[in-house]
């Protein structure tokens, strides 16, 4: 896939084993990551990790800058825990860089410290594959997938493409001449998946990588790109205002409250979702893992979290235990295949 980078966007490798599984090589990866970001932000989580009572203190690590999807999850979780007295002192630490793998490396180095949670998801899994990072999801304790977000395929309101078939037909005629954009690595994976479904070689596609959903929308509106794949929450305002036309929702089935036909219903079986997850350092006891599982269950059952799910149009999908392990293995295989098709 031909990629023109406007600015590299922050954000996932191998699937994690069961929660009780011990992992190796985390110290090396963590040390590299610490050197890359400096001692200040890492110190803020190591100092908080001094105590092991998860109800006394907790650090939630968002592996990207403030304002993005991972940061939103971290801060909504923080609010839910604070408002309901689930934790006495909970802080959010932002650690941007390399699609989230900098933060992953740091958290993987905190072996045995239960009062740290790392927000992750599809983008983090993709980044570990894309960058071949030393630290992978095998180096942390994966606790839960919380929900999914869906991408929507959009074009400018004045675009000649009225349907997804219109867009794909023009794309097939000259793949390099129809530039796509998106706000991150996940969006590019969706475009790649659609190309494969349409019989287009992803290597022949022009993809303009934008730094977040807002920049991708501007690339559409100023004519730099002809089409985009981006998160529905990022695009809903522009769709409702009439500035963008939504052609397809990338979901397994129609979603209540979203009046956009799925790509699958239009003959293109692309269903990659942008799921969000929580992990903790490795080396935890069974009792500590059980305590974190209980804390997560309590947090996502609060009114504040339920309000966030509705406000951000998240689709709840809670996976834990063996079901989570199987899901991560399948996602790793799927995303690795897409990167191979992209020639990366």
TrEMBL record:
Residues 1-20 are annotated as: Disordered. Transmembrane segments: none annotated. It comes from the Bacteria. It holds the Pfam family TctC. Belongs to the UPF0065 (bug) family. This is Tripartite tricarboxylate transporter substrate binding protein. The lineage of its organism: Bacteria, Bacillati, Actinomycetota, Actinomycetes, Micrococcales.
